[in-house]
Specification:
347 residues; UDP-galactose 4-epimerase, domain 1; binds nicotinamide-adenine-dinucleotide; binds UDP-4-deoxy-4-formamido-beta-L-arabinopyranose; Epimerase_deHydtase
Length: 347
């Protein structure tokens, strides 16, 4: 039996594929490579010494999804595929509603048709309403403030409705906090297109000299050092959470929601300090204005995932920084392979 991983070539998907393969699961990866590279699949195969099928194609193409279900004995789906840039979603809401909502609807329709009703879905802490008491539990108030967040909330509600309509469905929604870091081998990691939006990839690109300095978005927040606090979680801890979620959908039907975070938070300045300590690299930074949409503090209550999924994050902020830096230094151009022979012949 095979676990279908949509978006398995992406940042979190690739780390989860490694955990799945190392735990003896057979997998198939479906990805349109719109935000990833085929090189990651080669690396996963090398790291795990395991083989698996890769289907390059789009969730917007229902016949393509059917073909993948026809060719494999799929038992459950881990659904990562989606667009995730908040700013882009504000500029191009149609793209987000089409890709994330339509893509998921197609997937669910084909799953239903093939009577495969076990799904683990990538949601986000971004679904929680701002200005509420911390830590955020799964029962905290939800209210998304941008199209990206709304697609996540809508998909959560869709899954709840599917379960309501047919109790054979087993859906685990995982709300990730701030995933950072990379596999400790340095073989796979986060490879954003263009200038990164998120703190850690921006910081590592400053540290390696690709970007000049990090701009800290505001130091006048109601936090001890004035900079925003987030619940950063090592991507490998997050990936392991998916194995637990998969165990859950394999043994019982239902609709469940879990936070995947560490349960604590660090400020932007604390992240910079931890990075400098873990790597010995200085990070040039300056204080800038606030970024629109940022909340001062956000961290998870992880007691339900501990109790029900038997999962908890174990890696420290220093490890997250060390592994992010290891990935950055081993792969200064991410997965892009620079062909020096061609470069030289063009010069
Ligand atoms: P990612 O962009 O690295 O991975 C997503 C993958 O999905 C990419 O490989 C992309 O090519 C693929 N994809 C996108 N649309 C597709 C489509 N229509 N058909 C087939 N493939 C498609 O992102 P990630 O950081 O690995 O995030 C994975 C999931 O987790 C996403 O759903 C994201 O919204 C969610 N999430 C991410 C974070 C984060 O900070 N990285 C936080 C919370 C939730
Ligand atoms: C972290 C902190 C910034 C960059 C985002 C999405 C969220 C989820 C996770 C998908 C904040 C500060 C950042 C920089 C900075 N993704 N910062 N300078 O905003 O908490 O969450 O990723 O679901 O939906 O919104 O993460 O890494 O962008 O920012 O000072 O150049 O770092 O202000 O306090 P965020 P982030």
């Amino acid at each position: 039996m095979t676990i279908l991983v949509t978006g398995g070539a992406g940042y979190i998907g690739s780390h989860t594929c490694v955990e799945l393969l190392n735990n003896g699961y057979e997998i198939a990866v479906l990805d349109n490579l719109s935000n990833s590279s085929e090189e990651v699949l080669t690396r996963i195969r090398e790291m795990t010494n395991k083989s698996f099928m890769f289907y390059k194609g789009d969730l917007l193409d229902k016949d393509f999804i059917k073909m993948v279900f026809q060719k494999n004995r799929i038992e459950a789906v881990i659904h990562f595929a989606g667009l995730k840039a908040v700013g882009e979603s504000v500029q191009h809401p149609h793209l987000y509603y089409q890709n994330n909502i339509m893509g998921t609807l197609h997937l669910l329709e084909v799953m239903d048709q093939y009577e495969i009703r076990k799904i683990v879905f990538s949601s986000s802490a971004t679904v929680y309403a701002s200005s509420q008491p911390m830590p955020l539990s799964e029962n905290s108030i939800t209210k998304a403030i941008n199209p990206y967040g709304r697609t996540k909330l809508m998909i959560e509600e869709m899954l709840a409705d599917y379960y309501q309509a047919n109790p054979k469905w087993s859906c685990v929604v995982l709300r990730y906090f701030n995933p950072i870091g990379a596999h400790q081998s340095g073989e796979i990691g986060e490879d954003p297109n263009g200038i990164p939006n998120n703190l850690m990839p921006y910081l590592t690109q400053v540290a390696i000299g690709k970007l000049n300095e990090l701009k800290v978005f505001g130091n006048d927040y109601p936090t001890p050092d004035g900079t925003c606090i987030r619940d950063y979680i090592h991507v490998v801890d997050l990936a392991k959470g998916h194995i637990k979620a998969l165990n859950k959908v394999q043994i019982e039907s239902g609709y469940y929601t879990y936070n995947l975070g560490t349960g604590g938070g660090y400020s932007v300045l604390e992240v910079i300090q931890a990075f400098e300590k873990a790597t010995g690299k200085k990070v040039p930074y300056s204080i800038g204005g606030r970024r629109q949409g940022d909340v001062p503090i956000c961290y998870a209550d992880t007691s339900t995932s501990k109790m029900e999924l038997l999962w908890q994050a174990t890696k420290s902020l220093e490890e997250m920084c060390k592994d992010a830096w290891n990935w950055q230094t081993q792969n200064p151009n991410g997965y892009k392979i620079i062909d020096h022979a061609t470069l030289n012949s063009n010069n």
